[in-house]
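Colleagues,

For the teaching module next term, I've prepared a clean inverse folding example: a structure given as tokens, and then the sequence designed for it. I'd like students to try predicting residues themselves before seeing the answer, so please don't circulate the second half yet.
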């Protein structure tokens, strides 16, 4: 029994106070993330993962002792940015920046109890958007599609590609990200 206590003190016990302080700091840092966490949406999972990746990236960037510490931190920050892109649907709605639209509610009958929305495009620069993503534009089947449908498909594909890139980087690197 004495030997067990001696070994515990040698490897764990003498660091107990620093582990306790570090744990309290973790509770403080994670409190707002956990408080806002909900179980019904993937966005909250992204919040947890992004927060952890950013904290780990800062630590490894400043304290990393392995050769690729700075590069690993950059990859973690890239993953955090890709998570933001997923949360904000940045690529999914990017094509809308090339359009200006006005919307008007028009009654469907004389009683004016039901309305339909009438959309008028006031500015259409989708050709610039399609040119920006000309490689993706070449890959899309354009049969019976106008520029708006093609732009939506490119936007959807770009959003999906960024999600796949995020998880590919995580898959290839996450087990190496330690100090």
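(Answer key — instructors only)
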């Amino acid at each position: 029994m004495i030997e067990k206590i001696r070994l515990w003190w040698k490897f764990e016990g003498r660091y107990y106070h620093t582990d306790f302080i570090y744990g309290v700091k973790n509770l403080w840092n994670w409190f707002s993330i956990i408080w806002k966490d909900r179980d019904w949406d993937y966005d909250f999972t992204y919040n947890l993962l992004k927060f952890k990746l950013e904290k780990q990236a800062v630590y490894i960037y400043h304290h990393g002792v392995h050769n690729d510490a700075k590069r690993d931190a950059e990859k973690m920050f890239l993953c955090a940015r890709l998570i933001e892109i997923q949360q904000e649907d940045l690529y999914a709605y990017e094509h809308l920046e090339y359009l200006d639209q006005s919307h008007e509610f028009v009654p469907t009958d004389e009683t004016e109890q039901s309305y339909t929305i009438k959309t008028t495009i006031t500015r259409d620069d989708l050709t610039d958007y399609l040119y920006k993503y000309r490689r993706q534009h070449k890959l899309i089947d354009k049969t019976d599609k106008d520029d708006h449908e093609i732009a939506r498909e490119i936007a959807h594909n770009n959003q999906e590609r960024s999600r796949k890139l995020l998880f590919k980087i995580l898959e290839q690197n996450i087990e190496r990200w330690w100090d």
